[in-house]
Write a structure and sequence with these properties.
Low-confidence stretches: none
Strand order of the largest sheet: 1-2-3-4-5-6-9
Strand content: 5-15%
Mean pLDDT: 95
Structural class: alpha/beta
Distance between the termini: 26 Å
Radius of gyration: 19 Å
Shape: globular
Order of helices and strands: HEHEHEHEHEHEHEEEHHHHH
C-alpha cells in the first residue's frame, strides 16, 4: 500500500534540499511499481508532479523513468506527458533486446517526450553497450541528456566518446550515475574526438541513486565541483578530501559486497533511520538488507555527518509530514 503522506514528505525533502529536479519511476523508485499487482506507476508519478507544481518553480525538471519493450515504454511516456513531465529516462533493461531494438524503441519514445539515455550497470540487469550504440543514440534529435551508470571507467569513456562522435555533444547534457565514482566523474575532463575536432566534455551534474539520501549535501558537493572546474583550488582541495568518504557512504548503502542485493533496502534504511520512511519494505519480497548492512549505514551516518543531512532532516521533518507543509 502506498504511504502518500511519506511519499510527499520525501519529495518535499528533495525539493527543499535544492535538487534541480526529480527522476521518478527509476531504479531507486523500484521497477516493480509497474507490476499489475501493485499498479503504482501512475500514483507515484502523480504525487511527485503535484509537489513540484505546488512549488511554482518552472526551473525544476521532472523526469519519468520508462521501461519495457516499445509499446509499454511509449505508453509510460504518454502517461508522463499527461502528468506534466519534461523528459523520460529510458531503461535499457529489456531482456533479449539488441542494440538495434533499443535504438528503435528510443526513437519511438522520443516522439512523445525528450529522451534521457541510461547506461545501467550489468550487476542489476543492464546490457553492455558499445560506442557505436551511443553515437547512434545521441544522433536521435529528441535526446537531451545521458546518464552514465555502468560503474565502469572504460564503459563510461566509451559512452562519452560515442556522444562526441555524434556531433551533438553541445546539445546533450552528461550526468553521472556512477555512484562509486561521483567526485571523480564531476572533476573529470574528457578530451574526445568529434566531427569538429577534439572536444573537452564534462559531467554537468548527477542523476544518482546515492543522491536519494543526503540530498542537501549532494547539492553542495555539486556546487563545489562546479567551482573547482572553474579554477577554485580551495573547492578542489575540499572535494579531494571528500572523495573517499562519499565512496564509503555508497558502499554501506548500495551493498556492493553482496552484488548490490541490498541497494533499495539500503536507501530505505538510511531514510528510515532519519524518520523520513516508516520502514524498509520493498515491493519485491526477496529484497532486503544484507547481513550487517544496517550497522554499516549507522556507521557512515555517524562518521560522515556532513554527507547525510541528519540535522537538516530533523529540523524539517515535522513540516514535511504535515498535509499542508507551509
Amino acid at each position: 500500500m502506498l504511504d502518500t503522506r511519506r511519499q510527499r514528505a520525501l519529495t518535499r525533502y528533495y525539493l527543499d534540499a535544492g535538487a534541480g529536479g526529480l527522476a521518478v519511476g527509476v531504479h531507486t523508485t523500484q521497477f516493480e511499481i509497474r507490476d499489475p499487482e501493485h499498479a503504482l506507476l501512475e500514483p507515484v508519478l502523480s504525487l511527485a508532479a503535484d509537489e513540484v507544481r505546488a512549488r511554482g518553480d518552472d526551473g525544476l525538471v521532472l523526469i519519468a523513468g520508462v521501461a519495457g519493450e516499445t509499446e509499454q515504454a511509449v505508453a509510460e511516456a504518454e502517461l508522463a506527458r499527461s502528468l506534466g513531465y519534461d523528459a523520460v529516462l529510458v531503461s535499457p533493461r529489456v531482456p533479449g533486446a539488441t542494440e538495434q531494438t533499443l535504438l528503435e524503441r528510443a526513437r519511438a519514445v522520443g516522439e512523445v517526450l525528450p529522451l534521457v539515455g541510461f547506461y545501467l550497470q550489468t550487476a542489476i540487469g543492464g546490457p553492455t553497450l558499445t560506442r557505436d550504440f551511443w553515437r547512434e543514440f545521441a544522433s536521435i534529435p529528441s535526446v537531451v541528456a545521458v546518464k552514465a551508470a555502468p560503474f565502469d571507467r572504460y564503459r563510461t569513456l566509451e559512452l562519452v566518446r560515442g556522444i562526441a562522435e555524434s556531433g551533438r555533444s553541445d546539445e546533450i547534457a552528461l550526468y553521472t550515475g556512477n555512484d562509486d565514482a561521483i567526485v571523480a566523474d564531476l572533476l573529470s575532463e574528457f578530451h574526445v574526438e568529434s566531427p569538429d575536432g577534439v572536444r573537452t566534455l564534462r559531467f554537468v551534474g548527477g542523476l544518482l541513486g546515492q543522491w536519494a539520501v543526503g540530498t542537501r549535501a549532494a547539492v553542495r558537493l555539486l556546487e563545489r565541483a562546479h567551482r573547482a572546474a572553474a579554477g577554485d583550488l580551495q573547492a578542489l582541495h575540499e572535494l579531494a578530501r571528500q572523495s573517499v568518504d562519499v565512496t564509503d557512504l555508497n558502499q554501506a548503502v548500495f551493498d556492493p559486497g553482496h552484488d548490490f542485493a541490498g541497494v533499495i533496502a539500503g536507501v530505505h534504511e538510511l531514510l528510515r533511520q532519519q524518520g523520513l520512511l516508516e520502514g524498509i519494505w520493498c515491493l519485491n519480497p526477496d529484497e532486503g538488507l544484507s547481513p550487517g548492512q544496517a550497522e554499516e549505514i549507522a556507521r557512515v551516518r555517524h562518521t560522515y555527518p556532513g554527507l547525510n543531512d541528519d540535522d537538516f532532516v530533523a529540523q524539517n521533518l515535522d513540516r514535511w509530514l504535515r498535509e499542508d507543509p507551509t
